[in-house]
Every structure is written in C-alpha cells, then in structure tokens.
C-alpha cells in the first residue's frame, strides 16, 4: 500500500471517528432533552386540578389512538438493531454524500 492510499484511509478513519462521536453526542443531547420534557410535563400535570387532569389524559389518549396503524414506538433493542444496521450500511458504502443530497433536493 503506498503512502497516498494509507494517508487517505487514515483521513477517512479520522473523519468517521469524528462524525461518529458527533452522532453519539447528538443522541446524548436528545436523551437529556427528552428527560427534561418529561420532567416538565410531570411538573405541569401535578399542578392541574382533577378535571383538568382528566381532560389532559383524554387528549393524550386521542393522540395515541389517532396514530396510523403500524406506527408504533419501538423498544431499545429494535432501536439499537436499526442503528447497527445503519452503521453496517455506511461501512458498505451504502450512503450518499451531502453534495449528492443537495443535488437531489434541487430536483424535487
């Protein structure tokens, strides 16, 4: 392997490591945001009177019932499996670049 190829491979590995870390940081921030939102919802909910609580619960039931069939949340194992499959697709080169995406968007 010549030095140019080795340098490119090293640069690609570094690039992937940096963006993998950025992705993990994003996941962590989303989890923190979700906890904050849940805490805030609980805080507001506990301040309601019984009639208001019943109304909010009914509204939430309506939201959940109104979801499209087959549109159900997934458990952590399914989520992790999807992430692993996505990473494998990336490693196989099954992705498009940012530039390709921008070009595709212009064609919409």
The percent range for strand residues is: under 5%
Q: Radius of gyration from the CA trace?
A: 22 Å
Contiguous uncertain segments of 5+ residues: none
Query: What share of the residues lie within helices?
Result: over 70%
Tell me what the structure shows.
With 108 residues, the chain is mainly alpha-helical. The protein has two domains: 1-64; 75-108. Helices cover 79% and strands 0% of the residues. It is built from four helices and no strands. It is elongated and about 75 Å long. 0% of the residues are buried. The mean pLDDT is 85.
Layout of strands and helices, then pairs:
Elements: H1 3-46, H2 50-65, H3 76-91, H4 98-106
List keywords for this structure.
108 residues; mainly alpha; 0% strand; elongated; membrane; transmembrane; transmembrane helix
Task: Offer a concise description of the structure.
This protein is mostly helical and 108 residues long.
């Amino acid at each position: 392997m010549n030095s140019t190829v080795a340098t490119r491979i090293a640069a690609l590995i570094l690039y992937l490591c940096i963006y993998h870390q950025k992705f993990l940081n994003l996941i962590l921030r989303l989890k923190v945001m979700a906890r904050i939102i849940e805490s805030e919802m609980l805080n507001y909910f506990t301040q309601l009177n019984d009639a208001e609580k019943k109304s909010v619960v009914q509204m939430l039931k309506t939201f959940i019932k109104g979801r499209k069939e087959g549109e159900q949340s997934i458990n952590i194992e399914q989520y992790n499996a999807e992430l692993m499959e996505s990473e494998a697709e990336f490693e196989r080169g099954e992705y498009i670049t940012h530039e390709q995406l921008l070009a595709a968007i212009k064609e919409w």
